[in-house]
Design brief:
Strand order of the largest sheet: 4-5-10-7-9-8
Distance between the termini: 32 Å
Shape: elongated
Number of domains: 2
Radius of gyration: 33 Å
Length: 428
């Protein structure tokens, strides 16, 4: 029986070798189907990876509150300049700290300038006042030098930690550690000594987005107490043909819950605090945990959609295999009759045809995996899209190709086995 099985297997392979072109054309459906599954799932995985990474960077224990400029809350100051007053206040922060439970820490943010220079180099960026806890809540490490300390806050020192792009633009040929840059404060500038450089923060989109829709690579972080002493509450921002004065006590808050189960209840309480304390909606509350859950749901939906569309290619490939194998049964009717007359049983005929379909689908699946990985790599290099080929997508697509071969090859194999030997010998 074992020798007979090996012989049957060899007969199936020999028949495929005798019709190389037909075997290749039959496998193309499986090859392109598997390649389509891997390519589309890798594109979907890569597209959602940036969003997932950025949301996780925000911290799943955090609630983020931003000051937002309301169009109706504008009043004209002296000359042609505009004074805009809005956003988070010290009263809001005091209420949150005093009345809300399950809060581990509240980290303030305050944008005080949008331009800095060193020597002849200058850059448009963001100068943000914050506290030492900021680096922990957003999980952004200081790559070189040091971060802020409590002593910097107490002594209101003029030190700063800069992002990677700030280092590249202001200090292209020099080590910035220990150097002093100038931050614009109309009509003069404030010196800050660079004590630390952030590691490069991964960003996405165009323009680049980073933590809380900001690009930390283009920011200068300074002690919050220093910003109050040096800049006050009013910030001047100049754009093409216009100037704007912004009066804002806080540009943002990071509120960390003590437990992940407390994040959503705390976010609702924070929302109520601002609803009662602000007549106009000059704030927005973001919950990274909710964004993460939504992004994960979108990722699952997109993977199912792309997988279903690509799976249709595999189905078409399977139908192609069935069609060719049915034609092969008709073509080899006399051969089947001779083999049955010489003693071959129905199961031997069925196994021979099934071997051919399995070999076709397995080979097509293997080549399709190679094409799929190559296609994902080409998409990354040519279209500059991030693609991620996950092991599970390769395993599933390959297994599906084998299953498709077995499923669609079973019917032609059974039809061949059921042929009457006498009628098969008479077939012309």
């Amino acid at each position: 029986m074992k020798l007979l099985s090996i012989e049957t297997f060899r007969l199936g392979l020999n028949n495929l070798r005798l019709h190389k072109l037909r075997s290749l054309l039959t496998s193309l459906g499986i090859i392109f189907g598997v390649a389509a599954v891997i390519c589309m799932l890798s594109i979907s995985e890569g597209a959602s990876a940036d969003e997932m990474r950025l949301i996780e960077l925000l911290g799943t224990h955090n609630i983020i509150v931003n000051s937002v400029k309301p169009p109706q809350n504008k009043k004209t100051a002296e000359g042609n300049s505009n004074l805009v007053e809005y956003g988070i206040t010290t009263d809001d922060v005091a209420i949150i700290k005093k009345t809300l439970s399950h809060i581990e820490r509240v980290v303030p943010l305050k944008i005080v300038s949008y331009r800095a220079r060193y020597g002849v180099n200058q850059a448009e960026l963001g100068v943000v006042g914050t506290t030492p806890e900021f680096f922990d809540v957003v999980n952004v490490p200081v790559a070189r030098g040091r971060g802020m300390t409590d002593e910097d806050m107490e002594e209101r020192t003029n030190i700063c930690v800069i992002g990677e792009e700030v280092r590249r633009e202001l200090f292209p040929f020099k080590d910035p550690l220990g150097e002093t840059l100038l931050v614009e404060r109309y009509p003069t500038a404030v010196p800050f000594t660079v004590v630390g450089i952030l590691g490069r923060v991964k960003t996405a989109g165009a323009p680049e987005r980073g933590v809380n829709q900001r690009n930390l690579n283009r920011e200068i972080l300074v002690p919050f107490s220093t910003t109050l002493a040096q800049f006050g509450e009013t910030t001047r921002r100049s754009t093409a043909g216009s100037r704007e004065y912004i009066k804002m006590q806080y540009s943002g808050l990071y509120i960390s819950a003590d437990d992940i189960d407390s994040v959503m209840p705390v976010s609702r309480m924070v929302q109520r605090v601002f609803e009662h304390g602000h007549e106009v909606r000059d704030y927005e509350v973001k919950v990274p945990l909710a964004q993460l859950q939504l992004a994960q749901k979108k990722k699952r939906n997109s993977q199912l959609t792309f997988g279903f569309i690509a799976g249709i290619s595999l189905l078409v490939g399977g139908i192609g295999i069935m069609n060719i194998m049915l034609a092969t049964v008709t073509e080899r009717t006399r051969e089947i009759g001779i083999r049955r007359a010489l003693g071959a049983r129905q199961r031997h005929i069925a196994v021979q045809f099934l071997v051919e379909t399995i070999v076709l689908s397995t080979t097509g699946g293997f080549v399709g995996v190679l094409f799929g990985v190559l296609g994902a790599t080409l998409v990354t290099h040519l279209a500059e899209w991030e693609t991620i080929v996950s092991p599970w997508s390769v395993i599933i697509s390959f297994c599906l190709s084998v299953i498709v071969g077995i499923f669609f090859g079973m019917y032609p194999a059974v039809q061949a086995a059921k042929l009457d030997p006498i009628e098969a010998l008479r077939y012309d």
